[in-house]
Amino acid sequence: MKAFGYARADEEADAPMELREVSFVVTADELNDFVAFLDHVRNDPARKGTGESTHFHYRDWSKKWNRSGSDIIILLKY
Q1: Neighbours of 69 (CB within 10 A)
Q2: Domain of residue 64, residue span
Q3: pTM of the full structure
Q4: Which of 1, 31, 44, 78 shows the smallest number of beta carbons within 10 Å?
């Protein structure tokens, strides 16, 4: 597993940096939402059998997400 990040909010402006450590500061409710998001990624029927990689944005999945939060992108390789 690899993690990448951007120095600024505009990911188009910077090349992604490979991160060696990632910290999440969450409440119990936010953790539950994140686990549900990961479960959605794992079980998404649209991805099964495609033979390709795809990605999922937390900001698109969560109705609670707001601009002050981080977007978490899962790039799923098959």
Answers
A1: 12
A2: 3-76
A3: 0.77
A4: 1
User: DSSP secondary-structure letter at 57?
Assistant: E
Amino acid present at 35: V
Query: Using CA atoms, how far apart are residues 32 and 9, in angstroms rounded to an integer?
Result: 25
- CA 35 to chain CA centroid, Å, is 11
How many CB atoms sit inside 10 A of residue 58's CB?
Answer: 20
Q: Which ranges of the chain would DSSP assign to H, the alpha helix?
A: 28-43, 58-61
Q: Domains in the chain: how many in total?
A: 1
Give the HSE-up count for residue 62: Cα atoms under 13 Å, Cβ half-sphere: 23
For 6-62, what is each residue's pLDDT tens digit?
766 665 666 788 889 999 999 999 999 999 999 999 888 776 656 678 889 999 999
